[in-house]
Task: structure prediction
Amino acid sequence: MFTLSMLPHAWAICRFNNDATIPAWAYNGPLFTITRTAEELSIVTVDKNVPDGVKCERDWRCLKVHGPFELSAVGVVASLAGPLAAEGISIFVISTFDTDYVLLKQHDVARAFEVLTAAGHSILD
Result:
């Protein structure tokens, strides 16, 4: 199973029109993602960086899966998402070359820790 740790800060997941300019505040913080598709521009960044009036969901927390893992590794996200989904806990996943990050709402953190620990994962303080 995997070792996880909670990153500091609350996080926000923001949505813009697909042709929007990427705002400067999106690049601030220890972790951020910017994804543009034909339908939208999504930005994940530290909640406190996001100005009022931006369409977003706030109060997410972020668990880092300790890696690195080979890109060919199978089942990393499934081993986390499956038990959480079975308990009705919604997640937002960010994958990088080396590892994965699982965002969950602040109000689900305590229950998610219980579920993930019962599934065999360890969570560092």
